[in-house]
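Hey, I'm writing a tutorial for new members on how sequence and structure tokens pair up, and I'd like a real worked example in the thread rather than a made-up one. If someone can provide the structure for the chain below, I'll link this post from the tutorial.
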Amino acid sequence: MAGTKELPDAKELVARMAEIGERSNRIFRRFLERQDDEHFQIPDPKVVTDAFAKLAEHLIARPELLVEAQLSYWTEMGRLWEGYMRRLLGEEVAPIATPAPDDRRFKDEAWSEDLVFDYIKQSYLVTASWIQSTVANVEGLDPALRNKVAFYTRQYVDALAPSNFALTNPVVLDRTLAERGANLLRGYRHWLSDVARQAEDAPPDTGGFKVGETLATTPGDVVHRNRLMELIRYRPTTDKVQAEPLLIVPAWIMKYYILDLSETNSLVRFLRDQGFEVWMISWLNPGEGDADLGMEDYVRLGVREALDVIGRAVPGRKVHTAGYCLGGTLLSIAAAAMARDGVDRLASMTMLAAQVDFT
């Protein structure tokens, strides 16, 4: 934790808070006015209530299981408190609960080195594990209800993480002291901007994103273009290259760079660095003149034409394919049509969050 910092100037703080308060009033008045708008919707709380009411019925039917889970939780919390007291006395004590390796919420060293925040972190992890395991072990739930309850439970548990609250997050406290509270005011302004956009039914702010800089950062070349799409070619970076290229067909209801978000979050970059020559379709935004286009046009001008271009660039090779979301649906239609016509050009087909069987 940072040392003692000079407190912010009182007049400056009052001025900031007054400006934010005035803006908050305007935004929330508009937000409340929209409650009467027939198009304004919020999630129906009855869906959640009904799901957990059914969960409670099954819990009551086997009270001994709930008691057993509660005793187990008390035991773990007792062990945690004992370890905390021993650490206060200077002993080295192994943690009883550790975050998953990919859990970024507790990466800062203060979560482990500071006794108080280590206790807060571990008590949360123990409690979160107990809640989720208790729900998961309830007997007699049908699969759909079990999945629904597990989903809402996970959202609840994640929302209660100490990293989400300023007073229980050592990183936020450090930053708050260093910036004399300016970070909290800045964050509140950002939140007000989000609320204002929602109140006005405005689209999200995309000013912080720029294609080629903060999005779609993997270098590629547009090698083909028609009225429906552009075809991007990403060359591999490895000494040895996979024999067959890979064509990715994304959904046309979103931008292609959903699969190439950043250097650390890009399927395209990962595949390229594994030795694949990746090709990806980028669907063009349709206009009034495209109203006559149908699914067959997307198959012909999208998947089939992309395969033709790849075939000319890499002759004699079959092509691996991957379809994302609605792009997977289109790819499956194209593959079925090619099989019907006796066209054998695909080495494999992978579906990512794709819908195929609509029966």
